[in-house]
Amino acid sequence: MRPDVAQPALFRASAVAADGVPWLAAGFHLRVRLSPLVGFPLHPFAAWRLEHGHDAGEPPIRWRDAAGNSLAVPFDLERVGGFAEGSLFGVSAANPYVWIEVDVDNRGLRLDLLDTAETAGGGAHVIATRRREPFRFGHTGVVRLRASGAGTIGTTRALPRSVLAIEQVIEREPDLTFGLPLAAGYWYAPGPNDPLAAAKERVGLAAPRRLSPPDNPTGALPDDTDPGDETARIMDRIAPELVDPWLARGWSDRDLSPVHATFSDTAPAPGNQPVTASAAVTPSLLTMAVDPQIARYLGLVTAVPFGATRPVERANVWVIASRWAIQRGRAVLRPSGARPLTLDDVLGRRSQLAGRLDGLLHSVFPDARDLLADLPGRPGDRESGPWSSVPLVAVAVAAGDAPPDPPDPFQLTAAEPGAWNPQGEPGRTGGESWRQRISLGARPAPGMVGFARMAPSGPVALHRLEPPPGQGYVTRALPLVPNRASDDSHSRVLEDRAVPAGPAGASWRVWVADEFGQWSGGSDLALPSPDRPAPPPPVVEATFHADPDDGTSGPRVPGTLHLRYAVPDPAHASPGGLPVTELRVSVDGVALPPRPVTPGDTVVLEPAPNPFEVGEQRGVQVVSTYRDAAGTASVPSTTDCAAYDARAPRAIPTSPMLLWTGQRDATGQAELALRWPPRPGAARYRIYLGDARRLAGELGISLADTPVRAAQAKVIHPASANLTAKGAFTFLGEITGTPAGDGFVPFATRIPGGLRGVQLVRVVPLTAGGAEAAFQTCGLVPVAVPSIDRPPPPLLDAVTDPAGGLTLTVRARGLRPEPLAAAPGGAPEYRLRRTRRGLARHFAPVWTSGNLTGPDADGGWTATVTVPAAELIPFVRTVWYAEARYPAEPALPPGTVALPADGGVEPVWSAVGDSSEGLWSEPSLAAESLPIPPADPAPPPAPAVTATADGSIELTLSGLPTAHPTASTPYHLEIYRGTPGTASERRAVVAVLDPDLAWTDPAPIPAGAHYDLVVVDPIGRRGPATRA
């Protein structure tokens, strides 16, 4: 049995045996990787070198070419297309292979150790590479190999983790320990040695012997360094200033663990505004540890000289262990719709030998006992649970005599087009510059990244340099960690934020190191400068000053535009833009002469817009464009400056003729409906109403005491110019000037139907800008509500004379004098209704109308209507009704001649000058007429007599008289039959509805029978008989 090896996602170790590696000191280099979920251990790491004592066996591996075809070893790589991939199968996740070696006849072959997962971009993730013999690797889990180039692939040998005697770690003291440079505290217990001195020893032992690429972008020689200077830089400046504040914050609070601690710092932003930023302590320290020197200081990397341990073997196995403070209930992953995955799920059940390892670590780090005993009493939370400790073990295998090759350089591309920086930006000095984001691709960086601009003004390392030059220490570039792109490309990006402007663009070089500090060769990228942007669209301050009303009515320029431009200087121009040299402006589509300008100028123009109609209000379109020194035009800037013509519309013509409202309705209101042609420039109209008596009082005149209402209008209308006070009128409302479908502007309102006096309407037009026609210049429109007087129902007499026809006499009595006087010279009117079908009197059709004559001595008015006999229909009863009304009220008083005003106000439902017709009286009582011919009916014509085959007799007659369809009774034909010696008897009475008639006397018919035929008219008179 042996202790369980930790999940690599929580705790992983790696090792390399460096001999003759340019970037690394000779010896074994051990590195641990920690998850922020568990953070740093409670005490230093303990490391043991193991003797496994087993020969490597041949693992189950299957090689395939690029097409997926299986390959049997040995095989010539060139003959299968120069590519093959080998996959180990049947390997348990609990017992992975940790070392592998491939026999190769090398003719230019490259062998890559691949991860099980693919990169975010879809490619294989290369863990390590060898380009020379021996082709062997050590790793926590060997699964896939990839061969490319030229050579012969032979036998493969590998070691599974199960053959390693990991249980030896609980039988002896560790070979070495390494950990944080911290004294004893709430969350850390150091080993028996001075932790700071141990950190200095680790840093000095593996201090760089040559300059890194960011510190020597051109690779100039000599490039060697002084390890003592490099150690002093880390220990005396970088660690105290950049690392130790984070350690102090993370490990100083008993109630707050390092994995939960955050560090805050405040720094001035542009404009001297303080900005505070916070970050989690543990992930930040692990990010700093991408620099192997910082990692050595933090106890995450250490080196073991070859002379301090056994000689290098083909597989050099190291076991590294420590103990951590954890909360087993802490969530590691929160899948949607499922229970969170916790640390307890990842760690699993604690094994018995893990307890023995715990005891061994107790003896190695005795100062940790009190800390471990205090853990359960530390504050926790309900979800994550209480604090406890757990020992974790990791295995690192260094392939002897086969350190991994430096990583491949990145394939550089432009992440996006370059962009110019704003000039005059706070904190930015120097001339023009631009910024460029560079994509490193989707392959993750295994370690540090170096970034330098080679041209122009290069080479320049694009890193923060610490400490600054001239402070007594060597100055070196701090490492970079690429950011992830914000899009879906999954690529890593670097950014040069201040590329000096130059005609040839710029070039960059990027390097990448592995986790131990081996640097790749440089990869280069050259890009042209970004395109120069067009000038910004002009910003115009546009105002309008209107000219006063000059009394004209045609089109005119309404005033002056005032255009003000602030020509942008470099601080306000488009970043990278050339100086603005010209301003071009058009107003209402008319181009002005180009105006030369200088950045920072203030340009004022006062152009005139196109002519406006009276009262017109619209936006004057101003289109402005800048041009730069290269002649590039900006996007046109379009501004609509509100302008208006200050002239008021001309008044609407009016006439003194009285206009009439509608009749008073059941609600007691009368509709006032007017219309007029739209006035040029008028956008709205205000309507006022004044009473004739009130206005006469304002004018100081007296109205004649006359029932003729048009006479009142005649007096006031000419004096309308003297009515200047709006207070004498009632404001009826304001309407828009939009014409209706007939081309007129309509206005309708309701006024009291009981008004008997004359009302005067004033229509005042105004423009959209509010310029109103002078109130006193707007004429008056006389209006009145029609009279509701009705005369009493007249009397109607009807006398019928068979020879002379019908005489109808209408007599109207009781007519009031006032309505008669309101229409001097006019006569009352009558109208006659008649019906032959018995319709109600109000619905009987009007037959004729006319004027009544009179008055007679009794004040009565009469009219006589004669209907000639030839126009009467015999035997048809007709019912007659008569109505009367007062004479129509005139629009002008007698003797006055006036014409409607052209283009003036007029009524909607009538015409200017129409009189107001009165209301008809109730219909009279009915009078009836029934014309009857004076003579009896004539004998009927002789019939045609026909004997039929069955013995019947048929009589056929034509030319019989008929009555009108509306007669109450038709003509009848009486048929008698007799024989010699017997009296005639009536055989039939037939209604005569048609002049032609046929009648059949059925058999048997007596011998010698004859027929007598008699016509009977509608009132029963019989004519002479006709015998047949």
Q: How would you describe this protein?
A:
By secondary structure, the chain is mostly beta strands. It has 7 domains: 11-21 and 39-46 and 176-208 and 237-242 and 286-399, no CATH class; 55-160; 413-527, no CATH class; 540-644, Immunoglobulin-like, CATH 2.60.40; 659-778, Immunoglobulin-like, CATH 2.60.40; 795-929, Immunoglobulin-like (Sandwich); 944-1027, Immunoglobulin-like, CATH 2.60.40. The strands form 16 sheets. Strands 4, 5, 6, 7, 8, 9, 10 and 11 form an 8-stranded antiparallel sheet that branches. Strands 20, 21, 22, 27 and 28 form a 5-stranded antiparallel sheet that branches. Strands 33, 34, 35, 37 and 38 form a 5-stranded antiparallel sheet that branches. The mean pLDDT is 92.
